[in-house]
């Protein structure tokens, strides 16, 4: 699952939200919005909640059955529709004085008609506990039987980190990446993955913090891509993305306590993951343990020594928490027996280095020329100054 950037109603709705979001706002929206609105919460989070628990409720008129019926019934009295198109209605629980009430427009009337036509809500079954280990495709069952003898309780990510951490921590608190820049950032990361792990044919690869399993497609010919994540919801999306027969297998597992034997993998990925781990050092040690001699680990991290954050420190202004410096992470890798052989910078914009300028420059988030310039500047600035960086390390 990804965000449909080229679908006009979806893109327009995301653009409207980004233009109005404030730092503390909670957003309820269909799952793909989490790719462009990091703190968006899925419809299941509305169970037992009041609409006023959210600042914004994004209703997909074709997915009304996915919204708890009590929440849906209370919505029209607790919030006002202030944006609508042929697919979505966006409700605000604290609209501004100038926000028009769109209740009598055709798009919102269609929402009311669809809601009134819903059949009675069936009783909700008691939630079944998902197994810790999600069964791999049959062809891989024998291979993984020795690699995962038994899974232990997971404690790699805190629930708060799973729910609230933005994918680009330098934008915290409350910053939301533009669709074009976020897509370009992912493309740049994907380019490095393909470059760092080439040739991938025949490799056994571990994807740590695999999410919905997006990265596996970047490894053509891999013999095995084993994805692990602590979030059941992520694994539930990854499984149908790579149906059997395929070289993909997924398991719910703690990054700091991997259930694999030593030297099980030729390569490992830790992409957009280490910043959210409860115990990064333990996770790196585990990654090193399960790599074979000569195996490669690729890590990406938010750069706490980036040019923008250096500027903020120089001016004694608040800075986002977490992140790593290049030398710091290099030392952590060296401590677990891995030697860094390559490093690259990921994205840099001059505007982000000027405190107070980011809001004024927000329209450039979607400007192709400036997005491309940020990509090029990140490459040229390198890992010491870019907003994020990638490291490739090898086990001796």
Which structural traits does this protein have?
globular, 12 strands, 396 residues, 11 helices, 5-stranded mixed β-sheet, 7-stranded mixed β-sheet, alpha/beta
What does this entry look like structurally?
The chain is of the alpha/beta class and 396 residues long. 31% of the residues lie in helices and 18% in strands. It contains 11 helices and 12 strands. It has helices spanning 8-20, 69-78, 106-116, 138-147, 159-164, 179-196, 232-241, 280-290, 307-314, 326-335, 368-381, and strands spanning 27-28, 40-41, 56-60, 80-84, 88-92, 204-208, 224-229, 248-252, 265-270, 291-302, 338-346, 388-395. The strands form 2 sheets. Strands 8-7-6-9-10-12-11 form a 7-stranded mixed β-sheet, with helices on both faces. Strands 2-1-3-5-4 form a 5-stranded mixed β-sheet. Helix 7 (232-241) links the parallel strand 7 (224-229) and strand 8 (248-252). Helix 6 runs parallel beside helix 11 (368-381).
